[in-house]
Specification:
144 residues, alpha+beta, 6-stranded antiparallel beta sheet, two-stranded antiparallel ribbon, 23% strand
């Protein structure tokens, strides 16, 4: 891991992870889940292997966990964004439908910029991620 990536991970763990825990998320870096009665909200941090950038992928699955097309079941306390097939996750910060992915930069040597990046992620979780999960929950409830 690069020094810049290590510093960004440390800042995410310092700023974002406590807020995720306060919102009911469990798991360990980079995979988190919030198990609710109606669905499991999923969030995964993904770092690029080509440089100090990262994205935050969001998904949701049934509260019972996820069963893939082969019949393999991943239980609620183990499921991550990477288990879910079929549909693409939302990348936090993306502006669909034109922008499929959004990558955050961790290239700075400035601690303040890294902190600001982590705070930006936190702000998007409060707005875009929560809306994404509400929409998934609402779509399921209107189909049933």
């Amino acid at each position: 891991m690069s020094d810049q990536r290590d510093r960004m991970v440390a800042e995410l763990k310092n700023v974002v992870i406590p807020a995720l825990r306060a919102k009911g998320f469990s798991g360990s870096f980079p995979h988190f889940r919030r198990i609710r009665a109606t669905q499991i909200d999923l969030l995964t941090f993904q770092f690029s292997m080509f440089g100090p950038t990262f994205c935050v992928n969001l998904h949701a699955c049934p509260p019972t966990g996820y069963t893939d097309y082969t019949g393999k079941h991943t239980p609620p306390n183990k499921v991550t964004v990477t288990h879910i097939g079929g549909t693409l996750p939302l990348r936090l910060g993306a502006k669909p439908p034109k922008e499929a992915g959004h990558w955050f930069s961790a290239e700075s040597t400035s601690e303040q910029i890294l902190t600001d990046t982590a705070l930006g992620v936190l702000s998007l979780i409060a707005s875009q991620a929560e809306e994404f999960w509400r929409e998934r929950e609402h779509a399921k409830s209107t189909v049933a």
